[in-house]
Amino acid sequence: MLDVRRLRLLRDLSRLGTIAAVATAHTYTPSAVSQQLSALEREAGLPLLERTGRRVALTAAGRLLVQHAETVLAALEHTDAALAAARTGLTGELRIGAFPSAIRTLLTPALITLGEQHTALDLQLTELDPADVPAALLERRLDVGLTQDYDVVPLETGPGLSSVPLLDETVHLAVAAGSGIGTLREAARSGWILAGPGTLCHTATLKLCDTAGFTPRARHRVDDFGTVLALVAAGQGVALVPQLATDRMPPGVRLLPLPTRRRTRIAYRTGTAAHPAVAAFIAALPPLI
């Protein structure tokens, strides 16, 4: 019989690429991960890994087992959801990951409603960049989370996750009212207010500017859109801002709609959609498309 915990380690090795990364994700030592994978090889009766020095790669049997592991793990999630549905009332934890502007505009009302309707459900919210949500879900640090993609930055969550649409919105170029800028290309020489490197907003800005033929010159690096818009109003630079973040527009900012969209989805591990807590969260956030 194959050990489910070891199957999860093999799946994560396929996803993350190195034993060190798997060890970090599971708070194990690399040695412990290697030992567990060796034990899985003995259970399978076939070599699952090819070792070259410090590097490892999956064999054909290893890749096949990863495919079946996804099915096994999803079935276990389905089973857990069915057991949770058999209980009376919603209890336990629901760990949620979301980005700041969605927390302020979308999640706060939903969390209030869920808290009032299900007083025994422990809602735990973590502010998280959408780019980090898929890994947090697969590593079981979250139960649900908001993911995003832009036309220029497609979402690639990989196997093991499912999602439903939540929001489809316009992306704007925010400029100072008197700047005279009318197109993205005309902002090429401006100072830019960029999100932190590695965030989805930062990547999308670089991609969009690249399509316009320039690389933005970073003047400030700010992740909070309220601060971004205040800096734009003060003439401190230009920035890309999604529609969701424009609910508190300061005077002195002009928005130029761009021919690109940002999409937000509610993501969860495959097999958990029927879990009562996950289903209640999805129901509390109807699609805004």
From TrEMBL:
InterPro entries: LysR_HTH_N, LysR_subst-bd, WH-like_DNA-bd_sf, WH_DNA-bd_sf
Keyword entries, A-Z: DNA-binding, Transcription, Transcription regulation
Top-level taxon in the UniProt lineage: Bacteria
Residues in HTH lysR-type domain copies: 2-59
Annotated signal peptide: none
Pfam family, one: HTH_1
Claim: Transcription regulation is one of the keywords in the record: yes
Protein name, as recorded: LysR substrate-binding domain-containing protein
Organism: Actinoplanes subglobosus
